[in-house]
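Moderator note: this is an archived Q&A kept for reference. The question asked for a predicted structure of one protein chain; the sequence and the answer are reproduced below.
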Amino acid sequence: MHRRARTLLGSDEEARDAMQEVFMRVYQQHASFSGEVPILRWIYRITTNLCLNRLRQRRAHPVVQDPDAVRALLDGARDPVDRRAILQVLAKMDPLTQQIAIYYHVDGMKMEEVAEVVGYSRKTVGKKLDAFRTRARRLLEVGA
């Protein structure tokens, strides 16, 4: 979870702060945990949502700094790329698409793994990834 927070937030210090808040939320909300999903999935979701909320709060006017990095990602490159550029594009997506794209593109999970973690079918995950790529390309064209 710390690695997820560091990847999303871009710094170890921010990740440590976020993890403190994540575990406070887990402690405060443990009574509301229904057990319908694995606890690790629940905690990852809290971590992801908290980090995305922090990114939304700190961005004033997001500008993709490295559109080539995002294009490489969208064209199927699985190499580490400029994560800040990717996150700027992700910030404009709905929460489910954000989660799926992060699991797939940032964490390097396979579609089947993503489907299992988010609790949707592989087909739904594929559609969300396609929608993410399409929207990201449009955003890059507008910003280019």
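Archived answer notes: The chain has a mean pLDDT of 79.
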